[in-house]
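User: What would this chain look like folded?
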Amino acid sequence: MTRVAAALLLGSLLLSACHARGSAATGAPEGATTAAPSACAASDGIGRLKLVVITTPAVAETTEALVRLESETERSTLRMNAVLGTTFELRPGTYRLSISLPGYNSAKRSATIQCGSEQTLTVPLGRKREDPIASRAAA
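Assistant: Here's the prediction, encoded as structure tokens.
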């Protein structure tokens, strides 16, 4: 699955109907002035989380990492380009992320998304060490 298709799939799974709340009619009489839309309504009821993976040693530009994203009500797994990263558009709430890449140690992080917020989560992944006992047994 391409990164764009994965992002679109994740977006369709995680976006809420918050936009409907922000854009619903206010019920004010015609000609009445209304307050400026809140940050939540202006952002369609979502926040953005940019996920950046840093690998040591660096990986090829086409390497994909597996990301598991969970919240109280949502679960999704997708592949992302480990070099370019990805940006999630998420409903407000707390999310648990598990990031894995073959040959590298996995990482778990959490992020709290607020309506209209934009944040970056940088996750370093170090190379797995070989198990010396397993290496000797294989020889």
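Confidence is low (pLDDT under 50) at residues 1-28. If you want, I can go into more detail on any region.
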